[in-house]
Amino acid sequence: MSLVTLAARFAFYLIQLILLWVVYRICLALYNISxxxxxxxxxxxxxxxxxxxxxxxxxxxLGGRYTAAIARMHEEYGPIIRINPDELHCADPAxxxxxxxxxxxxxxxxxxxxxxxxxxxxxxxxxxxVAHELHRTxxxxxxxxxxxxxxxxxxxxxxAIAHKTADKMLASAGSGCFDVKQAFNCATADIIxxxxxxxxxxxxxxxxxxxxxxxxxxxxxxxAYMMRHNVFARKLAQFMPFMTRYIGKDIQTxxxxxxxxxxxxxxxxxxxxxxxxxxxxxxxxxxxxxxEEKFVFAVRGSIC
Length: 304
Description:
By secondary structure, the chain is mostly helical.
């Protein structure tokens, strides 16, 4: 059999597979708007109920504009609407306690929403944990570190960074305008890293307010909605550490922090457990976590 014949057969089968996929998607869209679907009776645009493409158009192509579209839907259809094939949206304050259930109510997260940032190492953190019970297991060891009593022990360190931030602001008086939000970003990153790892990232002590951790992660934030609707991009994110030399400088800096700088912070904190820093305590306490969960906390530390 010649190479041309093999290529022709491959193209024929490929076209068949594509046609079958298209037919499947059309049948699925018809089912989504049919009376057989469990959400059929809820109001909303039929095009939104038929496929996730409507949501993807606003969030991916228009850059996160679906929230505004949902607000317009509520004005037209009422307080409870169907915004995609599998999701309802509620704009009734009286229903808040039911949606944001307190203790005793089990609420698993929805994977579609977690896909916004659930790629690469983020996918194994507490933030991206779907199952309610597993999320509670991962969250409970951290809870004590954010109690009022524990936070009060951190007060001197917070005040020290706050004073440095204020002094730096006052020192810049008369030298032009600056974005105060960036100053708060620097202070926040220093406080969090100081508490989590025992070392400040040193953003406040640097000259100027930018770049800082927030400005570095902006490229990731801009891609969040694309990640929700693009399986290929989420898979590719797992290989990003190997591709940093081919991507932008900001993303290279972030991966340097994730893969080199912050792991050094964690190692240093483990060598000085007396300071009782968050991740060092979690990893070094054999009774608090399983080996798998210790790994998860280490990953959390690399992306916090």
